[in-house]
Amino acid sequence: MSAMAKKASNFKKSKTGLYVALGSTAFGAISVAKQAKLARNDNDVLRLVDAAVSAAAIVTGLAILYRELKRLGDDDVLLG
């Protein structure tokens, strides 16, 4: 593994990396909300189902990121 790949892997598991992932997931949630609104206006059932499945994936992703952030916080003495 190269030094750059190792550095990127460590960033992914850091608190900053988790915050970046949470932010990007939040932007994805905005996109899904717009997609659902458009589907309701057009009465497009297939797009509405797609938006619902995407929303479920976003909720699951946020739950996983929250759990990882909580695990990182458990190691920190100052956070409790």
Structure description:
The chain crosses the membrane at residues 45-66. Keywords: Membrane, Transmembrane, Transmembrane helix. This is Integral membrane protein. The chain is 86% helix and 0% strand. The protein has one domain (14-75). With 80 residues, the chain is mainly alpha-helical. The chain is built from 3 helices and no strands. It has helices at 3-12, 15-42, 45-75. The radius of gyration is 17 Å and the shape is elongated.
Describe how the helices and strands are arranged:
Layout: H1 3-12, H2 15-42, H3 45-75
Helix pairs in contact: 2-3
User: Which sequence of SSEs, written as H and E, runs from N to C?
Assistant: HHH
Distance between the termini: 35 Å
What amount of the residues lies in strands? Answer: under 5%
* Rg of Cα set: 17 Å
**Quick one: how many beta strands?**
0
The helix-and-strand class reads mainly alpha
Shape: elongated
**Count of separate DSSP helical elements:** 3
Transmembrane segments: 45-66
Protein name: Integral membrane protein
Keywords: Membrane, Transmembrane, Transmembrane helix
